[in-house]
Design brief:
By secondary structure, the chain is an alpha/beta fold. The chain has 13 helices and 13 strands. It folds into 2 domains: about 10-35 and about 255-350, Aspartate Aminotransferase, domain 1 (Alpha-Beta Complex), CATH 3.90.1150; about 40-255, Type I PLP-dependent aspartate aminotransferase-like (Major domain) (Aspartate Aminotransferase, domain 2), CATH 3.40.640.
């Protein structure tokens, strides 16, 4: 559990400071403030924690399905996407998985816990860690489960969803779990807007784009038959009432906020990367998400840089724990313009 970013409460406690004293650029959350109106809705309905939540989040599931033009039986609401990342390998009838690395570490951990054998498909730095679907196709034999994070974490590389949808539809003997946790930060169309092929599972995270990771709210979308086995193993009341209230509000009112975030990322990412490239001994890996992967080319290594940045009360992600990366890589997520400028200044001071 210690290898994840965004652990701001524990970091603040270890430093003896307040959470508000830290700039968390390790957790990949929205750079903007809370969605307008969300706090007021939660406060207004706070008394509802006196009741049991809807067993299967039926109201929220209906709202989410309507938003994306899905049938309700094609949607499950869970305690964060983590619930489904760990649940799917258990219900998967095959015993073999392919994990496209470097990527989010919980895919492998979920396979280990479910005793599903997982092999690595390694992305190449020379190709900016972009996914080569033709090369991946040579590794498919049928019956396996393939984990794809799009855009990928930590590289930020994005595979066009139209291209990905066509390719997945062509490989019907293989199952695919596509994690779109960071797709809302881009202008790319979600796979949820396409016809669902029977071999596809899609994850949607509320944590990142809406900045509510503490509420734990995620969605899994697939054909109804694929979700039956998963649904039979789920515990009741898996989503708390405050998370349900938040989700019901967000999926009916937050579209203008998401568009505002996308506009900000489009401009600020370009500006931020331009500043990063002016720092000697840093190689910026091209990507399209709300975070940037960098490679250190000098003697300074990521663990030391992470420590030195933390002394300035800036949290960055040391990426040496990602399979396929080493202690030369770090990741930084975009915040507001002022915080981003301060980060650049501290990196310039530290990296010589």
């Amino acid at each position: 559990m210690h290898i994840h970013g965004g652990n701001i409460i524990s970091v603040a406690a270890s430093l003896g400071c307040n959470v508000g004293d830290l700039i968390d650029m390790s957790g990949n959350l929205t750079p903007l403030e809370m969605v307008p109106g969300l706090r007021e809705v939660i406060c207004k309905k706070l008394d509802e924690i006196s009741y049991l939540p809807e067993t299967g989040s039926e109201t929220l599931r209906r709202i989410f399905a309507r938003k994306f033009g899905l049938n309700e039986n094609e949607v499950l609401v869970g305690n964060g996407t983590t619930e489904f990342i760990f649940a799917l390998p258990y219900s998967f009838t095959g015993r073999h998985a392919i994990i496209i690395n470097p990527t989010y570490s919980d895919y492998r951990l979920a396979c280990q816990w479910a005793h599903v054998d997982a092999e690595d498909f390694m992305l190449q730095l020379e190709q900016d860690f972009r996914l080569d679907l033709d090369r991946l196709a040579t590794r498919l034999h049928g019956g396996e489960l393939v984990f794809i994070c799009n855009p990928n974490n930590p590289t930020g590389a994005l595979t066009p969803t139209g291209e990905l949808h066509k390719w997945i539809s062509h490989h019907r003997d293989t199952f695919f779990l596509v994690d779109e946790s960071y797709l809302p930060f881009t202008r790319e169309k979600s796979l949820l807007h396409y016809n669902l092929p029977p071999n596809l599972f899609v994850l949607f995270s509320s944590s990142k784009i809406y900045g509510i990771p503490g509420l734990r709210l995620g969605f899994l979308v697939s054909k109804a038959d694929n979700l039956k086995a998963l649904n039979l193993r789920r515990k009741p009341w898996g989503v708390n009432r405050i998370a349900q209230i938040a989700g019901e509000y967000l999926f009916e009112h937050a579209d203008p906020y998401v568009e505002k975030v996308q506009n900000f990322i489009q401009v600020e990412r370009s500006r931020f990367i331009k500043s990063l490239k002016n720092i000697r001994s840093i190689r910026v890996v091209p990507g399209e998400a709300n975070f940037v992967l960098c490679q250190l080319l000098g003697q300074l290594l990521a663990p030391e840089l992470q420590t030195k940045m933390l002394e300035k009360h800036i949290m960055i992600r040391n990426c040496e724990t990602f399979t396929g990366l080493d202690d030369h890589y770090f990741r930084v997520s975009l915040k507001g313009k002022e915080a981003n400028d301060f980060c650049i200044k501290m990196l310039q001071d530290i990296i010589v």
